[in-house]
Amino acid sequence: MRRLVLFDIDGTLLSADGAGKRAIHRALMEVFGTTGHLPGYSFAGRTDPEIVRDLLRSADVDDAEIDAGLPALWFRYVENLHREIREIHVAAHPGIPELMERVEEGGPEMVLGVLTGNIREGARIKVDAAGLGFRRFRVGAFGSDHGHRPELPAIAVERARAATGICFSGKEIVIVGDTPLDVACGAHLGVRTIATATGHHPADELAAAGADHVFADLGDVDAVWNAIVRG
Predict the structure, then answer these.
(1) 100-129 burial string, b = 16+ CB within 10 Å, else e?
(2) Strand order in the sheet with 110-115
(3) Closest CA relative to residue 145, chosen from 65, 50, 3, 209
(4) Distance between CA atoms of residues 7 and 18, nearest Å
């Protein structure tokens, strides 16, 4: 059975208690002197580059200045994230370790991957802090690959093809996430979507977004596994 199983990170694999948001805000102040002016702006489901650009544009920072400052900003963000993570407990959500093991034990045509708006180094820091082992994910697509989330599934599919020789398509591709943006990002590829209400979006909102399966959390490992392989 072929499956490319792509997990989102924040709100899906784990909770980092807002560490990423605090690290980005601090980096924005350090490099650009502003965190932007978007009251109520939600980071959920967005890529790190999208978040940074939205916030800076709201403070009338032009794109040329943003582009020039991004290398310094990402350096400061990673440094700040390391500091934030040391001060909190990063916990994996229910069922995640068991689901990862099932994918890993599913044979050569079952591929464990991550699809996230985090830049790659931020993703590694969070996943390792939760004790999940970033190296276990054979495939990854990150905010540092593209700022527009709907571009990420195709990147993950191509990386899976390069790693395994398998051209995953349609419902063989499973995206597991906690936001409507996670649910929507692979629609153009006809992917299978599994949504978990362990982030900031309730189950009814995730269902309305069109998820194939919605769970309060992923703790019922047998039910989630059935959704992955049979649903």
Answers:
(1) bebbeebeeebbbbbbbbbbbbbbbbbbeb
(2) 139-141, 110-115, 3-7, 173-177, 192-196, 213-215
(3) 50
(4) 19
Query: pLDDT per residue over 176-195, tens digit each?
Result: 999 999 999 999 999 999 99
Scanning the structure block, which residue is given the tokens 């390391």? Answer: 82
Closest CA relative to residue 151, chosen from 184, 178, 120: 184
In three-state secondary structure terms, 192 is strand
* Statement: the pTM of the whole predicted model exceeds 0.90: yes
The pLDDT, as a whole number, for residue 123 is: 98
The pLDDT value given to residue 126: 98
Using CA of residue 210, residue 16, residue 134, residue 150, what is the dihedral sign?
positive
Instruction: Report the sign of the C-alpha dihedral through residues 17, 21, 25, 26, in that order.
Output: positive
Residue 17, CA distances (Å) to 36, 135, 156, 201 in order? 21, 23, 27, 16
Give, for 141, the enclosing helix (H) or strand (E).
Answer: strand 139-141
Tokens representing residue 162 in the block:
């390069």
Q: Distance between alpha carbon 194 and the CA centroid of its chain, in Å?
A: 13
Give the C-alpha separation, 185 to 225, whole Å.
Answer: 21
Q: How many residues does the chain have?
A: 231
* CA dist 164 → 34, 51, 139, 169, 188 (Å): 44, 33, 10, 14, 23
CB contact burial 159-187 (16+ within 10 A = b; e otherwise): bbeeebebebeeebbbbbbbbbbbbbbbe
